[in-house]
Automatic annotation (TrEMBL):
<protein>
    <submittedName>
        <fullName>HTH domain-containing protein</fullName>
    </submittedName>
</protein>
<dbReference type="InterPro" id="IPR036390">
    <property type="entry name" value="WH_DNA-bd_sf"/>
</dbReference>
<dbReference type="InterPro" id="IPR036388">
    <property type="entry name" value="WH-like_DNA-bd_sf"/>
</dbReference>
<feature type="domain" description="Helix-turn-helix type 11">
    <location>
        <begin position="19"/>
        <end position="56"/>
    </location>
</feature>
<dbReference type="Pfam" id="PF08279">
    <property type="entry name" value="HTH_11"/>
</dbReference>
<dbReference type="InterPro" id="IPR013196">
    <property type="entry name" value="HTH_11"/>
</dbReference>
Length: 78
């Protein structure tokens, strides 16, 4: 995904976590085009927004502990 914006990165990270497809922190850093240290910062951002997220060592992926996800898009009021 070229030229991430702040919200693009959050959306992409959320989709990877929902799919349990982040890989290790090192693999996730490559997917997001950030450092491993920044991966932890972004994961903490999701946690700060209320996400019950954890790293599954056996599956080598981040995952939500309950079903759910974020919606960062604009919703028009009617």
């Amino acid at each position: 995904m070229p030229n991430f914006t702040h919200f693009n990165r959050l959306e992409y990270l959320d989709s990877l976590v929902r799919k349990k497809a982040t890989g290790s922190p090192e693999e996730l850093a490559k997917k997001l085009r950030i450092s491993v240290r920044s991966v932890h910062v972004w994961i903490d951002k999701l946690k700060d927004m209320g996400a019950p997220i954890a790293y599954d060592k056996q599956r080598r992926t981040y995952c939500y502990l309950v079903p759910g996800g974020f919606n960062f898009g604009f919703k028009e009021e009617k």
